[in-house]
Batch of 2 targets.
Target 1
Amino acid sequence: MKKATITVTFEQEKLKAVQFYLGKSGASLEAELDDFMAKLYKKYVPSQTREYIESGEEPAPRPRPRAERPDRSAGQMQRGEDET
């Protein structure tokens, strides 16, 4: 799904404090905000709407199987070889 950017205004000193203490616990502000947004989405968006939105997600593309190449017989020239 395509991502969007959200801009939030927050007091700078408080932001520094949050980042400092998150870092001490091994967490990141981005991960915490992602988790918080997922909880908001689940709390406020009705399940039927979530199901509809999530059904529109494209599954990861599967690699196409490659066609097998026939073995070259000993008498045929390989590409790039000179006739001498």
Target 2
Amino acid sequence: MRTINLLSDLLLRVSDIGRSLMPAADKQETLIVRCETLLSRRGEATSLALAREILDRYGALDTDEQSCFFIEMMNQFSVDERHLNQMIEAWKADQQPGAAKDSPKHKSSTHSQGLIRQIHSASEPRSQELIRRLNRAPRGTQDLVSMRADLLLAIAKGAELKQLDNDFRHLFSSWFNRGFLELRLINWDNTPAVILEKIISYEAIHEINGWDELRLRVAAEDRRLYGFFHPALSAEPLIFVEVAMTASIPTAIAPILAKQRQHLNPAEATTAVFYSISNCQKGLQGISFGNFLIKQVVEELRHEFTNLTQFVTLSPLPEMRHWVRQQVAQNKLSDIPQTLHQTIHLLNDSKDASGVDRAQIEKLTAWYLLKAKKSNGTPFDYVSRFHLGNGACLQQINSEADASGTRLKSSWGVMVNYLYDLKSIEHNHEAFANHQTVVCAESVRRLVK
């Protein structure tokens, strides 16, 4: 952390020097012209200062101005087609019969590969280099993550901007790969208050209402909270997972979150429950590191508590009600067993599941998780895709698991357990990745028969 702060201070000093070296007239240029200037500069100090200026000016734009900037950025800094065509023609000429491939200077295979690499380089949009240079500015990475969050909102209005988002995703996938991430145990005594405040703010599954509730989740002896951090965003968690140690696989969330619960001696626990996983940075949407988080936390817990034998989730079904409504609205009930039609109509017409048979709800949930698919053959439910893709097994369906308004609205209170069996994780992952197989317990499979 100290090394990171020293580097940040150094960059700020160099940037300040660069700012004093820039002509005042240059600062009157439009933002997109300043970006063009940044791509042409070679001086380190002035480049850092200019990158910082661009990010600051961008931060002052309103939503409409941001959208215009993204469109200009995509169009102005696209692929240099003229240069790309030159490289392609050079490679084509190299492949023609009679090319001087036998000359000592040529070295056929090496020369051809060199031309292919030049084609690859020429095919890169200039916007990627612009993003790289902006990233060199002090606090540049954090500002670019925020910029991409704005871009994702703009894409909802204009799908053509997805081309620009591909550039951000390509670079972020490298900058935020597992090798750069640090797993930290977040606790009450040693974690800075600024990070604890952000945990309260970023919790996306089970709301944390103030410091007292946070303390129950990070200070109790049978609770753990781990997060991934990146060196460039040292005080910003990227994703975190909350863990409860229990005596068995839970069927409801209330006992886990209860303020007056009986604490369990961790030495007597058999099960580690991942009951909340929250992505913190909207600008990193689609950049996957949650799978590494769970697997690494499993290893941390196994070494700390050798008595743990089961690792499970207690997961929401955020899209189940949406799927049911979709089946009714699009007259697709013929795809679903007729024995479930009445249950679907009862649930579709009610705010909660009162009066609906629990067994029928669980059968419908099993059908949804095992049979409802996207066009590419993967499960409709994105939480299911996440855990199955990580090698988990759909272990158990729990009706009346969460009576909160959020869960009633999304799934009539139903939650499920995914089991991370260390002996089967890789096999399950391969089955899902290669064949979209939904690995599940026999008790779940019987529900759809």
